[in-house]
Amino acid sequence: MRKTFFLIACLTVILWGCGDAGVQSDVSKNIGIDPISVRLSVPAAAVGVLVGQTPPINVNTGQINISSDEFDEYLDDTERFTINQITYTIDNFPAGSSADLTIDMTIQLQGQNPQQLLTTRIDDVQNNPVDVLLFDKDAPGSVNAAAISSLEQALKDGTSFQVAMTIVGEDVTLQTQDVDFDFIFKFDVTARIQLVD
Question: pLDDT-based confidence at 9, cuts 50/70/90?
C-alpha cells in the first residue's frame, strides 16, 4: 500500500562548505506518514474488566518511500541521508478505556529480510501521547544501529521500506469490546546534497 507523506516542518537549507568539495548543503524535513489503524480487543465478557494481557496484534505501514516522495528533486546529488529522530503519536484512543502497550518494531527494506529495530513500552496509551521520541541519533539507546544504517542507505538508494509492529496490550480495561486508535510515525531526516562540484 502506497503511503502519502506530508511536510511537517519548513524546509531547511544550510550552505556549509565550498572549496575542493564544491558547495554542499543540508536539507532537513520532518515527515509524517499516514496513520496506522490499530484495533485492541477483549472478549465480550471482559468489557469493563482489567485484562492482564491481550493477544498480539500485527500491523504495518505498507511500503513507504521517503526519499523519492520528499527528496526527489535532490536524489541525484545526495551524498547521504541521516535519520535524526523517529517519533510517534497515539491518536483517538477513547476516554474511559485504558491500556499499556508493549511493541516490537521491525523494518523491512524492499526485497530484504526484516531487521529488528527496537522494543518499547508505552504506558497509559489513553493519554494519547504526542511526538514521543523513539530514536535520536545523538542518544540512540537500545535501537538497532545496523537497522538505522540500512534505512539510511535505503533512503539514499531510493528503496522503499515498511515498518511493522507486533503490539501486545497489558493491564487493559476497555469500555467496549473493540477499541480503534491510530499510530503515527514521524521521521526527521537530513539529506547532504552536493550543489556545485
Answer: very low
Tell me if 176 is assigned to some domain: yes
What predicted TM-score, i.e. pTM, was given to this entire model? 0.83
Domain count for the chain, please give it: 1
125 pLDDT higher than 80:
yes
On whether the CB atoms of residues 30 and 87 are closer than 8 A, the answer is: no
Would residue 173 count as lying in a domain? yes
> Which residues span the domain enclosing 13?
6-196
Side chain identity at residue 136, one-letter code: D
Q: Would you state the cell numbers that stand for residue 22, as one nine-digit string?
A: 564544491
